[in-house]
Amino acid sequence: MHGKTAQSIAREACAVIGRGVLVTDEAGIIIGCSDIRRVGTLHGPSVEVLRTGHPLLTSQADAERMAGVRPGYTAPIILSGQVVGTISIAGPPGEVERYGMLVQKQAEILLMEQSFTEMRLRRQQALRDLAESLLLFTPESGDDRLLLLNGRELGIDLRNLRIAVALALPEERAGDGMQRRAMDTASHFFDSPEHLIVSLRDRSIMLFLALPRPRERGVLERSLRPLCEELLDLLRENGVEAQAGIGSEAETIEEIALSGRRAREALDAGMTLGGRVHSADALRIELLLSSIPRKVREAFAADVLGRLKDDELVRTFLAWCETPFAPAEVAKRLAVHRNTLQYRLKRIQDLSGLDPRNLHDCFALWSALTLRTLGQGRRGGWAGEGQRAGDTSRDAAAPEERLSGRPRRSDGEPRRRGRSPSERAPIR
After folding, report:
1. How far is the CA of 418 from the CAs of 155, 218, 277, in angstroms?
2. Does domain 290-381+389-402 fall into CATH 1.10.260.40?
3. 128-162 pLDDT, tens per residue?
4. CATH of domain 123-288
5. What is the DSSP letter of 408?
6. b/e code 7-42 from CB counts within 10 Å (16+ = b)
7. Contact between 318 and 365 (Cβ < 8 Å)
8. What is the mean pLDDT of the chain?
9. Stated pTM of the model
10. What is the DSSP string of 224-257?
């Protein structure tokens, strides 16, 4: 029993019944008392109560035979079948005895709540340690059997985990309250004890999801994307703005560890590029580019882009990347005449020395724009400094917020082949 808890019990009970109250530990030492001067001293009647496990009335005559003892009623505090201390009420025994059971039960309830809280916190800590160990795992770093054993002790079978999701919260607001709301919302949304959902030390949240093994590669990630959008909408309703990164599908411990790292990388890059849900599979090229040393990235971007800084030309080029070699469709999307589009493409070529109608030159320009945006860092402050990231959402704000240049449907989602309704089935 903690001294702070014991002091709180003594103070609150004294305020209710108007009598002196003390609480001892399992050795009979006072650890909480309405008279703070008595803390740390031995309480004689409590020694007897601890020995027998039964309440004891102390008369005036009995109290006079013991140093520092007052007449009253002393009862054991029992938690999980064990006597963990005592609580004593000072006053005429016949008068204070009627309060004894009430105060005793109040103390036991408070201690039980404290015990449950401590158990929950210890479990949360153990789950966090497990997730962080999983994120750091590589075959070279050790044997996965220890991870499997730790997971089994916590009721998590790591062999069932199939894909990872990383959540980031706004850094300036990612306090304990917001983090708890985000954790509770995510845990209720993916409601299964098989999932590993934890809050990490950097205040980001990791979800290792135990989902059914799909028949085809890629189905799981495509099915998970709309669920992540739904989760972010739900978080927003609860006052929590967040972004999500989706890792790669996994079959082994090594792969689920990689999925967690890739989810964090996708999240980090995506927060720079724009959007809310960022998939590692959809950002393979962006993540590859982000691995290039910063100085090399900056030099390449500056060399390739040259004098190309006009936002309108950048928007035109990105629209061209979405449907290359389809000038009529690009002009329609930009709401300009085809001759205007051709003029802008020629202007891009004049400023950069690269022809966007040439596949090699087009990729060089797109890569340089992507590298320039990655070099600008995250848009806004987000918790989770250990992350890297990515997704490509079609945002109409700044022109470089949608630098992936991937083909997209009219609703802004990436175009994918063979996306059947069954692939979009809920996988919670």
Report:
1. 37, 11, 21
2. no
3. 999 999 999 988 887 889 899 999 999 999 999 89
4. 3.30.70.270
5. B
6. bbbbebbbeebebbbbbbbeebebbbbbeeebbebb
7. no
8. 83
9. 0.65
10. HHHHHHHHHHHHHHTT---EEEE----SSHHHHH
